[in-house]
Amino acid sequence: MGRGVTGLILKAMRADDYVFTVLGAEAVSEHYHRVRFDGGEFLQRNPWFPTMWVRLWIPKSGTATTDEDAGDLAQRGYTIIEPEGSEFTIEFAIHDGPAPRWALDAAPGDRIAATMMGADLTIPEHPAPSEYILVGDAASIPAINSILGTAAVPCRVFLEYQHDGERDLPVHADHVTWIARENRGAALVSAVLAAGLPSDAFLFVVAETRATREITRTAKRDLGLAKDRIKSQAYWLDRG
Ligand SMILES: Cc1cc2nc3c(=O)[nH]c(=O)nc-3n(C[C@H](O)[C@H](O)[C@H](O)COP(=O)(O)OP(=O)(O)OC[C@H]3O[C@@H](n4cnc5c(N)ncnc54)[C@H](O)[C@@H]3O)c2cc1C
């Protein structure tokens, strides 16, 4: 029961714990859901920055609860957007998993535990990137939008989709290249690499594990992007 080994490790690392309270929830589409939270002191103690994320402690049952520590919990990363005072929003891409089940069930007054540790974004300044190349899917639209909202250079956006409706989700870019998820992410990898990754760009790649690794490896090994010009993080693992 509880947070298991992961929770013990984070505690030993002195990670910061919070409780978020649900203020409201709305369906954006069949496959995308938004939940508004009050985070108490969370944003006061952790000033917001683009791509900021937390580790939510999701009840494995997927059932929302008024008790933040009820049942067996699994840790899942989620991006904080639209901060205002102590409030913020989290957007959930919907698939068959405990986190989306929790979000679909969430109602005002429900509480969820969260841990802040490991989130960062450093973009090199000398020289500044010629452009940002942002690669992800529905799960990373919140993070990608948060970069698009603050970027001072041109951005190219590549998003993989699993449902046609995802192409209607709001992405704050003039142009997005949408790629249907095929062959466990291989189509996304091909599209990004074929479009070209200049060595003076900043690459933000946060898709499914396999595509994220493949694009990152090629960018470093074959295309000469320096380590500090790449932010790469697998946002989910295809267990299908
Ligand atoms: C730093 C960070 C920030 C993130 N921010 C967000 C965010 O803001 N919004 C968001 O929706 N997600 C976000 N994610 C991704 C999210 O944490 C994962 O999708 C997570 O696995 C969801 O947990 P789960 O309980 O639904 O499913 P799991 O128990 O992890 O998986 C259950 C099943 O669902 C499948 N699955 C998991 N994720 C996806 C997916 N995205 N698409 C299709 N199938 C999937 C798995 O392959 C498995 O078959 C973020 C991840 C990280 C690391």
From TrEMBL:
GO terms for molecular function: oxidoreductase activity. CDD domains: siderophore_interacting. Residues 15-124 form the FAD-binding FR-type domain. SUPFAM superfamilies: Riboflavin synthase domain-like (SSF63380). Coiled coil: none annotated. Pfam families: FAD_binding_9 (PF08021), SIP (PF04954). PANTHER family: FERRIC REDUCTASE, NADPH-DEPENDENT (PTHR30157), NADPH-DEPENDENT FERRIC-CHELATE REDUCTASE (PTHR30157:SF0). This is FAD-binding FR-type domain-containing protein. It comes from Tsukamurella pseudospumae. The lineage of its organism: Bacteria, Bacillati, Actinomycetota, Actinomycetes, Mycobacteriales.
